Design the sequence.
């Protein structure tokens, strides 16, 4: 089969899917994206550049839509080039968030499109207004509603969609949910798995040493920012570190902002470190930025308590990975997390914005070994039952076959048995 993938940040959500498909003889994959350093052997990659934006006369509330239209034009141009070279995909798969796929039905009218519907923006009940420290005035509501313009244009294509969680799919209007398949994402369980041996020797990162006797508290986010509860985690450090001198904390995440407001001429990490200067022992806390995947997994395997905080928003892959590694998880008591963490069973839940209670909940699982072991075991069991990568890829293949009317992998033909002469 021929596949055309679209995502402005190659490979986006499609790393494991593409690796699986490219391993099947006869499959061809083209991927349209913006330039970056990522590479997958066997994928024909086509890069587009957005160029300089002319936004002087564009209404502020539709600047995202303006950018989406420009992306759609660029992607359609590259798609026409592919078509002229003889590449007509059997299916187009991509993320609808940036508008890139909106014009592809004009280029390949007979090709089914499977689009990733990640989040439907709302003015109440999700991330907006959740954190009183960062209020949203009602004059921002028109801008927030306008952020769904691409969602509605994509749904208007009358094609097919996917969402990774029940909660994310439920945010879309009822009439739209009929187009969106629930396709829970998987984790490589053979990589993300418990490894008790990691506790037998010191773990060293950038001269920061976690000894076997230390209690390690971990926190992971793509970027250290309030949307992922970074400010709450930082404000929990004084109580947490004061209560137990054997605790060390490693917090992974970059200094950029993925969601929410930026700070002028600073990062949220610097801002929070200034706010809390002198209130906790900084020598026991490491914030090394983003690290290689194997280091990320090793930290999760060594973790004694893993903190996952988020607003009611798109769930991070790191929560799934932490469950697969058998972490004892202290998570935000919000709808997207409750889909994975049942309080007292697969982890413990705590209010996302209460640092003192967060510190207490972390201390509880550090001090109660039986509770910690039970939560760890049941988190891994949940991952094995619900987050298996093989099961996810099989469901993905089945959906592709349903939409295209063709199997992803050709049926194996049994070779005729040859009778040997007596």
Sequence:
């Amino acid at each position: 089969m021929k596949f055309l993938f679209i995502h402005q940040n190659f490979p986006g959500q499609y790393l494991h899917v593409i690796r699986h498909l490219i391993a099947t003889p006869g499959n061809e994959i083209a991927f349209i994206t913006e330039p970056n350093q990522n590479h997958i052997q066997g994928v024909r990659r086509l890069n587009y550049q957005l160029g300089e934006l002319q936004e002087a006369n564009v209404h502020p509330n539709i600047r995202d839509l303006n950018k989406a239209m420009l992306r759609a034009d660029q992607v359609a141009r590259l798609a026409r080039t592919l078509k002229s070279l003889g590449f007509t995909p059997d299916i187009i798969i991509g993320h609808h968030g940036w508008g890139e796929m909106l014009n592809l039905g004009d280029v390949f009218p007979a090709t089914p499109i499977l689009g990733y519907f990640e989040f439907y923006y709302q003015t109440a009940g999700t991330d907006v207004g959740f954190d009183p420290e960062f209020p949203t005035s009602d004059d921002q509501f028109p801008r927030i509603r306008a952020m769904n313009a691409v969602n509605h244009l994509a749904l208007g294509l009358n094609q097919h969609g996917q969402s990774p969680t029940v909660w994310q799919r439920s945010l879309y209007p009822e009439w739209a949910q009929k187009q969106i398949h629930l396709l829970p994402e998987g984790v490589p369980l053979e990589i993300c798995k418990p490894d008790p041996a990691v506790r037998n020797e010191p773990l060293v990162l950038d001269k920061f040493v976690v000894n076997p006797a230390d209690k390690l508290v971990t926190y992971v986010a793509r970027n250290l920012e309030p949307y992922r509860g970074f400010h709450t985690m930082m404000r929990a450090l004084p109580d947490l570190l004061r209560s137990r001198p054997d605790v060390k904390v490693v917090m992974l995440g970059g200094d950029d902002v993925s969601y929410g407001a930026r700070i002028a001429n600073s990062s949220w990490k610097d801002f929070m470190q200034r706010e809390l200067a002198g209130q906790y022992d900084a020598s026991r806390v490491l914030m090394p930025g983003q690290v290689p995947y194997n280091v990320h997994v090793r930290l999760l395997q060594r973790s004694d308590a893993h903190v996952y905080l988020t607003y009611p928003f798109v769930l991070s892959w790191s929560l799934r990975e932490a469950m697969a590694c058998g972490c004892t998880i202290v998570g935000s008591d919000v709808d997207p997390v409750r889909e994975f963490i049942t309080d007292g069973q697969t982890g413990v839940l705590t209010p996302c914005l209460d640092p003192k209670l967060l510190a207490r909940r972390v201390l509880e699982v550090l001090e109660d070994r039986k509770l910690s072991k039970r939560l760890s075991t049941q988190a891994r069991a949940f991952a094995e039952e619900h987050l298996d990568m093989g099961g996810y890829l099989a469901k993905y293949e089945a959906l592709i076959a349903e939409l295209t009317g063709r199997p992803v992998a050709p049926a194996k033909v049994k070779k005729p048995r040859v009778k040997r002469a007596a």
About this structure: Confidence is low (pLDDT under 50) at residues 418-422. The chain is about 35% helix and 15% strand. Residues 63-84 form the longest helix (22 residues).
